[in-house]
Recover the amino acids of this structure.
């Protein structure tokens, strides 16, 4: 079977073969939250371009966004906080509490409602452990988030 016949049999056109790698490479640098956690082995190292519309929320103090399982919050012109976006109790999403510069669990039901400091430590449970924290480095409009 020739190559063209093979791909035709699979329903794959040459355009698809050429275009898919670009889609994959775009998704690596795109800052849209994929909902996925950190990379293999818990690796976190990504850069957000704060000039892109999807990331401009971080140009305002008190705002936050979630990317790759990390919640990043801007607390001042040059200060960001970055912690794991999943509660250590039962895995609900973490939110930034800008009024208090701390994080809280989005699950406010009975037996939940954990609160974490800006550095990820448990302020009030039931979360058993701190949130993992990450480093941030702002260079121009590029914000690197890494372990
Ligand atoms: S899941 Fe966060 S406090 Fe229960």
């Amino acid at each position: 079977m020739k190559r063209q016949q093979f791909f035709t049999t699979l329903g794959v056109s040459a355009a698809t073969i050429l275009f898919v790698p670009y889609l994959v490479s775009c998704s690596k640098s795109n800052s849209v939250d994929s909902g996925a956690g950190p990379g293999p082995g818990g690796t976190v190292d990504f850069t957000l371009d704060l000039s892109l519309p999807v990331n401009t929320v971080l140009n305002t103090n008190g705002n936050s966004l979630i990317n790759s399982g990390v919640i990043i919050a801007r607390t001042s012109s040059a200060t960001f906080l970055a912690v794991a976006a999943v509660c250590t109790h039962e895995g609900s999403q973490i939110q930034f509490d800008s009024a208090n510069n701390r994080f809280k669990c989005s699950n406010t039901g009975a037996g939940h409602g954990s609160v974490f400091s800006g550095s990820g430590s448990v302020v009030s449970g039931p979360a058993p452990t701190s949130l993992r924290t990450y480093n941030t480095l702002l260079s121009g409009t590029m914000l690197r988030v890494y372990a």
